[in-house]
Amino acid sequence: MHQIIERLGRAMAVLGGLVLGSLIILTCLSVAGRVLNTILHGKIGALAPGVSQYLLDLGVGPILGDFELVEAGVAFAIFAFIPLCQVTAGHASVDVLTKVFPRIVNRFLQMIIDIAFAIALILIAWKLYDGMLSKQRYGETTFLLQFPIWWSYAASLFAAVIGAIAGVYMAAARCYEFFWNRSVVRSRDGAEQ
């Protein structure tokens, strides 16, 4: 079961990475277009108005609605990285105090943390679902591109549900580890926890 959840988390992380990479390219192209547009309206427009107007008519400039796409895509990407982070115990942690605790205490703490994460991820998915239904019901759209806002919520909800599944699995795995004193999940360095 752990391998299935980990593969699902990795697939979501790859998808999130592709979306994030696309957004980086989109942002760079939009900034470059904005700079070229400024130059074409400035010095080149004064020196070669025909060339400048020709390029402007081709559409040289910022990408319309770039910030709307970035806003929606980054939200999805964040949620897409959560499942892998959860299943590999990749969240940031401060282990200064816990290193001196016995193994059973650390397992108990990890169990409590993963249960809390599972609850939080379920609540996030639930509220995203409520938000998506609300945006869909009222037909809200983005300002420039006019695409329905609920699409962004649906994409983020998909990733959040996968995150919640990973969270519930990890909470169950940590409970099993604590109560039966058997390792299910490997630590970040590959050793049994």
Structure description:
With 193 residues, this protein is mainly alpha-helical. Helices cover 75% and strands 0% of the residues. The protein has helices at 2-41, 43-47, 49-58, 66-87, 103-138, 149-180. The chain is elongated and about 80 Å long.
List strands and helices in order, with pairings:
Blueprint: H1 2-41, H2 43-47, H3 49-58, H4 66-87, H5 103-138, H6 149-180
Helix pairs in contact: 1-4, 1-6, 4-6, 5-6
Q: Total helix count?
A: 6
First and last CA, distance = 17 Å
Helix content: over 70%
Task: State the low-pLDDT regions, or none.
Answer: 189-193
Largest sheet: none
Could you tell me the mean pLDDT?
90
From the helix content, strand content and strand pairing, which structural class follows? Answer: mainly alpha
Could you tell me the strand content as a percent range? Answer: under 5%
From the alpha-carbon coordinates, what is the Rg to the nearest angstrom?
23 Å
Assign an overall shape: elongated
Number of strands: 0
Give me the strand/helix succession.
HHHHHH
In short:
It contains six helices and no strands. With 193 residues, it is an all-alpha fold.
What keyword list fits this structure?
193 residues; mainly alpha; 6 helices; 75% helix; elongated
